[in-house]
Amino acid sequence: MKGEQAFKRLISGQIKGPLAAVGRSGLALLSKGYEKAVAIRNDKYDRQGGVQASVPVISVGNITAGGTGKTPMVQYIGSHLLSQGHKPAVLSRGYGAKDTKTNRIISDGQELFVTPQESGDEPWLLASSLPGMGVVIGRERAVSAKIAVEQLGADVLILDDGFQHRALARDLDIVLVDAVTPFGYGHVLPRGLLREPMTSLKRADIVVLTKTSLASPKAVEAVKEQVRAIVPDMPIACTNHVPKGVQRLDDWINGCKRQPVGTDKNYKYLVATGIGQPQSFVETLERQGYTVVGTLAFGDHHAYTDEDVVRMWTDAFASGADAIFLTEKDAVKLATVEAMKDLKLPVNVLSIGIEFAEGEVEFIQLLQRVMSR
């Protein structure tokens, strides 16, 4: 975790001095090789395309490594499609799952067939949060698509984290851009966090800026200008991460009703996270009036252990916290860690959704257009 934070401080320029400059120069050389490999791969798919599924495919992805809010967006799209009488299924690589080589059904929309350790945190969360929506994991998404259609009866597929996964053709490419840290410090991996050059946005059908309430209006407009400098007529929507409710971890595990946001404000909290952008979660809590006195940021998709729980307790004690806040992604995995039963502190889980600040009508129209083909 500390290595991940140090890496981000290095590539962002926060770490100064000659050694840091040398380090960034070395990473820039590696980036050239990475960018060349990406260009060759993209040229291949530009020429030959991907496998065409028998039903519409909606891809939700991003252009940077790290959290941009894909899970809440997939939940939003899945919820909308279900409300329109469709039978969506999510195709996920299953990052963090025990086995991603084997394509397997996580949920048929009615029943969860595996544990979070077997599925990965995000697929399990998606499957548990939207009854009626199937979830299939596996590295080869074209195989998952066939399973979802033939075995689950899906009439539309949501390709989770799909912008770079071009082996499966898509009918709609949605690219999410974090308004707070939009373009990975302006460089491709490993010099920055861009998964591919910004010019790749030309493949997108719509760009959705996320977490816009955490950025200034001026910063949001600057991101829009950067996008339109590449694709002048690109549709751009804006969304915010919105807290939906609070639950104690045991209540969350048992599917109990959420309490209103603002419940348990009398505590001082340690925030423990294993997500791509932990500071955004902290800021969201503070904007709701919660007092955060400490942050323990593990790496994205962290696999929690008993030792991590001991560290939570130690950090809470050291920071003066008398309770802990988790994201739902972290709750998925911590719920099965034995040491959590002995943690003598209240543990709360904050559920997050998205709301559109701009462009929701146009966004829905794109979804409808895809489904009417």
Summarize the structure.
With 373 residues, the protein is of the alpha/beta class. It has helices at residues 2-12, 18-48, 70-83, 116-119, 121-129, 141-152, 217-230, 249-253, 278-287, 306-319, 328-334, 360-371, and strands at residues 57-62, 88-92, 104-107, 134-137, 156-160, 172-178, 206-210, 236-248, 268-273, 291-297, 323-327, 347-358.
Q: What's the story with the biggest beta sheet?
A: 12 strands, mixed
Compute the CA-based radius of gyration: 21 Å
Proportion of residues in β-strands: 15-25%
Overall pLDDT score: 93
Name the overall outline: globular
CATH-defined topology of the largest domain: Rossmann fold
Instruction: Give the tally of structural domains.
Output: 2
| Order of adjacent strands in the largest pleated sheet | 3-4-2-5-1-6-7-8-12-11-9-10
Q: What is the CATH architecture descriptor of the largest domain?
A: 3-Layer(aba) Sandwich
**Poorly predicted regions:** none
Helix content: 25-40%
Q: What's the CATH first level of the largest domain?
A: Alpha Beta
The CATH superfamily of the largest domain turns out to be P-loop containing nucleotide triphosphate hydrolases
Cα end-to-end separation: 45 Å
> How many distinct helices?
12
Quantity of strands, as a count: 12
How would you spell out the order of helices and strands?
HHEHEEHHEHEEEHEHEHEHEHEH
The chain-level structural class is alpha/beta
